[in-house]
Amino acid sequence: MTYDLWYWDGIPGRGEFVRLALEAGGIPYRERAREPGMDEDALVKDMLSDRKHPPFAPPYLVAGKMTLAQTANILLFLGEKHGLAPASVEGRLWVNQLQLTIADMVAEAHDTHHPISSSDYYEDQKEEAARRARDFREARIPKYLGYFERVLAGQDAWLAGGKRWSYADLSLFHLVDGLLYAFPRRMGTQAARFPKVMALHRRVAELPALQAYFSSGRRLPFGEGIFRHYRELDAE
């Protein structure tokens, strides 16, 4: 089966977590909103079309007659269907739990530049963003990365143990990548505190299954979306 992935064109966003799983797993898919002739209206039209289980927002994955939304939910499905998570129920739920924790941090990272309203410009909430970003840098980054460091302390290489990555490892890689882009000064002083997290980041970056994707130009650069770099929001 070839899946249809729908997400906004032009930004990595939450869709990138799904893309990494599809690419690393060698799973056929079409990025529908990025196909020739498509535009933002095409995505909205498809999202609002008559479906048994309509999505609230992208990303969503069309798998035959099923429409699956919410990043963690999509990955839970792909993990079981394509062996991107442990075979046991306990193992699959553990990887899903890790993914949900990553999703929590992703939401907090986004709120550093849009703490009041997602529909207002950053420039309209700069004072509040500065306060939110300071707390995120000083308290939340070490808290979350410290958690993943503890998880990895009990494993040889990957979050769920074993000799093979899971989709949670791919997602943690993208999360760390986003933090390195958005908060380079803070991550410059924090990275040494979390050597296992940073080692996982390097391992995923070197996965043979992802090299074609990374070199293809299809991986969208950071800029807009969740992870944004504002010099005034970063500090050591």
TrEMBL record:
<dbReference type="InterPro" id="IPR036249">
    <property type="entry name" value="Thioredoxin-like_sf"/>
</dbReference>
<keyword id="KW-0808">Transferase</keyword>
<dbReference type="InterPro" id="IPR004046">
    <property type="entry name" value="GST_C"/>
</dbReference>
<dbReference type="GO" id="GO:0006749">
    <property type="term" value="P:glutathione metabolic process"/>
</dbReference>
<dbReference type="GO" id="GO:0004364">
    <property type="term" value="F:glutathione transferase activity"/>
</dbReference>
<feature type="domain" description="GST N-terminal">
    <location>
        <begin position="1"/>
        <end position="86"/>
    </location>
</feature>
<dbReference type="InterPro" id="IPR010987">
    <property type="entry name" value="Glutathione-S-Trfase_C-like"/>
</dbReference>
<feature type="domain" description="GST C-terminal">
    <location>
        <begin position="88"/>
        <end position="222"/>
    </location>
</feature>
<dbReference type="InterPro" id="IPR004045">
    <property type="entry name" value="Glutathione_S-Trfase_N"/>
</dbReference>
<dbReference type="Pfam" id="PF14497">
    <property type="entry name" value="GST_C_3"/>
</dbReference>
<dbReference type="InterPro" id="IPR036282">
    <property type="entry name" value="Glutathione-S-Trfase_C_sf"/>
</dbReference>
<dbReference type="InterPro" id="IPR050213">
    <property type="entry name" value="GST_superfamily"/>
</dbReference>
<protein>
    <submittedName>
        <fullName>Glutathione S-transferase</fullName>
    </submittedName>
</protein>
